[in-house]
Amino acid sequence: MNWDFIxxxxxxxxxxxxxxxxIGYAGIAIAVAVGLLxxxxxYFKVPVLRRVVSAYIEISRNTPLLIQLFFIYYALPKIGIxxxxxxxxxxxxxxxxxxxxxxxxxxxxxxxxxIQMESALSLxxxxxxxxxxxxxxxxxxxxxxxxxxxxxxxxKETSVFSAxxxxxxxxTAKDLIGLYYKTTESLLMLVVFYxxxxxxxxxxxxxxERRLRHAxxxx
Amino acid sequence: xxxxxxxVLFKGKNMIRLLGGLWVAVRISLIAVAISxxxxxxxxxxxxxxxxIVKVITRVYLEFVRIMPQLVLLFIVFFGATSxxxxxISGELSSIIVFTVWGTxxxxxxxxxxxxxxxxHQYESAAALTLTPSQTYLYVIIPQTVRRLVPLSINLITxxxxxxxxxxxIGVVEVLKVAQQIIEANRMSSPNAAFGVYLTVLLMYFIxxxxxxxxxxxxxxxxx
Amino acid sequence: MAEELLKIxxxxxxxxxxxxxxxISFTVRKGEVIVVVGPSGCGKSxxxxxxxxxxxxxxxxxxxxxxxxxxxxxxxxxxxxxxGMVFQSYDLFPHLNVLDNILLAPTKxxxxxxxxxxxxxxxxxxxxxxxxxxxSYPRQLSGGQKQRVAIVRALCMHPEMMLFDxxxxxxxxxxxxxxxxxxxxxxxxxxxxxxxxxxMQFARAIADRVLFLENGKIIEDADPETFxxxxxxxxxxxxxxxxxxxxx
Lengths: 219, 224, 248
Hints:
The structure holds 3 protein chains of 3 kinds.
Chain A: H1 3-43, H2 49-61, H3 65-75, H4 85-111, H5 114-122, H6 127-142, H7 144-157, H8 169-180, H9 183-214
Chain B: H1 14-47, H2 52-67, H3 70-85, H4 91-116, H5 120-128, H6 133-163, H7 175-185, H8 193-223
Helix pairs in contact in B: 1-4, 1-6, 1-7, 2-4, 3-4, 4-6, 5-6, 6-8, 7-8
Chain C: E1 4-15, E2 18-29, E3 33-37, H1 44-51, E4 59-64, E5 67-68, H2 76-81, E6 83-86, H3 98-108, H4 114-127, H5 143-155, E7 161-165, H6 173-188, E8 192-196, H7 200-206, E9 209-214, E10 217-222, H8 224-229, H9 234-247
Parallel strand pairs in C: 3-8, 3-9, 6-7, 7-8
Antiparallel strand pairs in C: 1-2, 1-4, 4-5, 9-10
Helix pairs in contact in C: 3-4, 3-5, 5-6
């Protein structure tokens, strides 16, 4: 193991990891918003919109992110929609993640007893008040485990970003392997940095899940 | 109507070449699925063991394989094996190895989840009827877990097929690589070929994965 | 005679081809306690849900003090505030404590001042013996306590009348009494109520009028004395016999 090599190229990995995290969380944030909207549209069976949402979910979930990225990055400019590598990364992750988040929130919404909606309505609350004050708080807490699993899944998926010329961790590792043949060192740093990004989320997830499973509101 | 570069698809053997590339990816995932399902079932049963050493080893394996992006695993095998072991493994073989290792981990977790979801009294009443452990599994536990497991394993197949798109990144000539080559070869005559060709590749994956997901969803509803 | 409060005219409710409520008409006067009995699946609960416009109806008209209640209409939430409803179970909001459960609708739907409602809520909780549970969460309460909170939550909206949908059906026997006592207290204070129940002794004690529903039709509408002692129809006699047998 060549530690000098590792010391020298550590900053490069740090920068790449930062890029991965930035684009990753930006994409995830948009995915959460998209997912919530889609889940609510499905929950209330909004005409027309629910069909559009269902179609989107099927397309998004049944195609690989890598190809979605290729399509956004190389194909969309041909019909006049220009993209940057960063924009493409965020958009691709949001497109993929939106459907996964939608499914998580939808099953959370469906797990809330229908009588909760009815009793909120019978108290004279507006549908929108019933949704935001009664149904969503419960649905969101039910969907926490699925939500965390999605965050981990989406952060992992960011590994394909180098395909659209983003200088992320994979790009850096491949570059160093190609240039210096320091394969072991490059791979080690790659693994370590992904662990730094992913382990905290995974640990936080299992803590949250345990607390939700054994407790609930009021303990 | 702008030129969407769809004509390229019908030029020469381009469509056939794309399908050939798709088959490379699908074949790899099918081989990996065929190996990981039995291995995963075996490992899943092993993981329910009470032995602390077995528990720790399987846990570490599972957590590492599942937390690493599949592309990192591909890099480790494809680049790492050459430098660490001095052997040159082809991209295709690396892919099969990685997808099998990953698929086995995912499958074993599904199996373990299905097994521990069987209530304890099922084991106890089987024991009370003097069934041996293997008889208990064969006649009581496995039939109950299969229904839970089948839709989830079918879903694993679509995940596997989608993930094989990554093998492009270690230089395997599959559908995306073929697509790039076609676009490159036609860049003068059909500058917009990227749109039509990548759209086609996207649709190809959709046409393969969607029916499988639908089947899984239907079975889940039927048996859930 | 007191003024008419709720008027139901020719109410018809169908689920696809299945007619659940068949041309039902009756009037509820102010301060009147109406108990609805009948075999399971006769349409009792559906009737209450229609009155609160939780279900669309296929025919007829429901009015409270002259205002028509129409499923899906714009002013539905204000109309619903005038009718309190308590369900069989599970209708407290699990993510809110008892006090917040009660405060939610008065402060959000009626935009009333939090202090004022809190004061009223605490008084009502005291009346049902739950003042010390204000900060508890629903999962920390027994079934009977939950139902008493649900009643307080509905009362805090100052409804003109209350609907009770088998509120004791999911409770352990020893908790039924504490809930029924609260309802008897309400009746004494002059609350207008429609109660769907299987508790025949309670029905007899609290009702001003008993409606006997079968196959979506009202086949008896009588004072409790007459209904329980001298039911007119054979169906009602058979129905009451089942309960007598169980009691013996």
